[in-house]
C-alpha cells in the first residue's frame, strides 16, 4: 500500500469546502437576487456511502448560502459551518469534539483560503480544476473538476481503501 493510500485508509473525518468542491464554483441568481447553487447528485450518493461506512463528514465554508445548509441537511451531514472565514479554528474545535486527530482528517479545498487547513491535516485533497497552490500541496488530485463528481471520486477511494486495511 502506498503512503497516500495508507493515509487515506486512516481517515475518520472528511471535511469539504463548498464553492468549487461540492459545486462548480458558479453562482445562480434568481430574479429576486437570491443566490442558488448546483450540487451533483453523485457526490451526494458518495457522501452517504462514506458516512454509512463510519466516516464523519463536515462542511466548512466561507459563504453563507441557505442552499448549502439545505443540501447538508438533505444528506444527513450534521457538521455544517457556514460563514467561516478562518477555517482552522473551526476544524480544530470539531476534531476535539469528535476525538479525532488532524492526522485522521481529509480536507478538500480548491482555493487559497483552504491552504492553511490543507497544510495541517493528514490528507489534503483537491479537485482537478483547483488553484495551482492547492494542487501542489495535495496528497491526491481528483480526475474530475469540482461539482462534477470529484467528491464522489474521493468518497469511493476512501471507502475502497478502508475496506482493504
TrEMBL record:
EC number: 3.1.3.45
Keyword Zinc among record annotations: no
GO process annotations (BP): lipopolysaccharide biosynthetic process
Catalytic activity: 3-deoxy-alpha-D-manno-2-octulosonate-8-phosphate + H2O = 3-deoxy-alpha-D-manno-oct-2-ulosonate + phosphate
Binding site for substrate: 19
Binding site for Mg(2+): 17, 110
Cofactor dependency: Mg(2+)
Annotated Pfam families: Hydrolase_3
Domain of life: Bacteria
Enzyme class: hydrolase
Family from the record: Belongs to the KdsC family.
Subunit structure: Homotetramer.
Name of the protein this chain belongs to: 3-deoxy-D-manno-octulosonate 8-phosphate phosphatase KdsC
Organism: Scytonema millei VB511283
